[in-house]
Amino acid sequence: MSKAKINTVKKGKDDNEEFGEKIKKDLLFRVFKELGSLNGQPRIQLFIAHGFLELLINALIKAKAKNGKKITDDTRSYPYASQLLILHEIGELTDQDYILYTWFRKLRNKAAHEPLFNLTIADFDPTIKEEYRSIDKFYSVCEDLMLRLWNKNKDILVPVFVPTLAAKKEK
User: Fold this and answer.
1) What 3-state class would DSSP assign to 116?
2) Burial level of 146, CB count in 10 A (0-12/13-18/19+)?
3) Helix (DSSP H) and strand (DSSP E) numbers for the chain
C-alpha cells in the first residue's frame, strides 16, 4: 500500500475518532449518559429528564408557535404546563403524549416539593408500558418520553442539541 493511501486511511480513522469525541460532548449524549449512570435513583433521573424535556419543549415552541420567542421568554405567563398545552392545541403533541408529559410534569412537581419523595409503582401513569412500570426501569420511562419528542422533531432539535452532527450533515 502506498504511503499516501496509508495516510488517507489513518486520517479517516482519526476524523471518525475526533467526531466521536466531539459528539459525546453534545447535550443530548451527556443527558443520556448522566441518566444511565443514576440507575436506582429515580428522583434524580426525574429531575434530569424533566429539565431536558423543558429544553426540548422550549425549542419546539420557538420553532412551531407563531409567537414562540415571546412565549419562551415569558415563563411567568407561559410556564411549562402552558407550553405543553400550546403544543397540544396546535397538533404537535398527540392526546396520549399530552397526557404523559402532563403526568411527568406533575410527578416532577411532587418530587420537588416532598422532602422524602420515593417513587412507587402507584406513581406510574397507567398508560406507561407495563414492562417499564418498575422503579428499576424508570430510566426507560425517561428515555421513552425524551425520544418521543426527539424522533418526531429531529429536524428542529438536532441543530440545537447535537450541533456536532448537524455540522457534519452540512458538509
Assistant:
1) coil
2) buried
3) 9, 0
